[in-house]
Amino acid sequence: MFVNTEKKYIWKNSSFHKWDDTNIHILSHTLHYGTGVFEGVRAYMTNKGPAIFRLHDHTKRLFGAASKISLKIPFSENELNKAQCDTLNKNDLKEGYLRPIVYLGNEGLGLRAKDLSVNVAIAAWEWPSYMDPEAKKNGISVIKSSHKQYENPLHSGNKIIGTYFSNTMALHEALDNGADEAIMLDKNGYISEGSGENVFIVKNQTIFTPTPENCLNGITRQSVIQIAKDLKMQIYEKNIDYDDLLNADEAFFTGTAVEITPITIVDNKPVNNGKRGNITKELQDKFQQIISGEDSSYESWLTYTN
User: Fold this and answer.
1) In degrees to the nearest 10, what's the CA dihedral of 285, 286, 291, 294?
2) Is residue 8 among the annotated active site residues?
3) What CATH number does the domain containing 169 carry?
């Protein structure tokens, strides 16, 4: 994923460091206990220059997640917003992926995470496509995961490092079984999410997505809900059975990495005719207009880096 890191830089605690020299101590509390938070953020090239998509919302969520596990970030939201813009520019990126991360230092080890330094780092790199580039048109395959997304109030709406182990196992299980992604169920047996994506289905021209009680309330998820409403589409948040996915007219994932990606095969069976649906394509087209700066009505979602 990373190329030419010799000339790349990572922002860490107010200054830039060479990519390959930016390390943390082996006894960092976060490495051992997962006491940290992170974000995944995308920047896109527009006719006004590079712009970060919903930067302020991502940073606000980062601070919210940190507060949930009693981490006091030693910077303001404005400072980290500027740092993310600076990191993109420092690495001479017109578009790409940004990863802010907040982690505890190595001043002490053990469950008592008191009086430890709170550190912040931001990396940025090229991100042409998370999936196969053709996946946006042809869709991807998913399987039902045996790893459930159990009720975890810290997971919903927060990207906390220690809560992601089951998502990783779900993805590995899917890949080992020849699928592209996993569908995780919640403790009640309803669809929760993919390993790192939110799930939407379409039935009879109406869009449905799981409630965010047992899944991450993704920022791309929130964006798609708003876009669908603006396009006068019918969209509802509700509990979704796995059979609803199997019998859907269309299905798709949303997320910072995958953007809007069709799901066309579920457990080796095609969704409807096995092709991207019309509603999915319409949402994709509008999303592309927004992130490229072509639709000025969503200008507030873009933060220009220059």
Assistant:
1) 100
2) no
3) 3.20.10.10
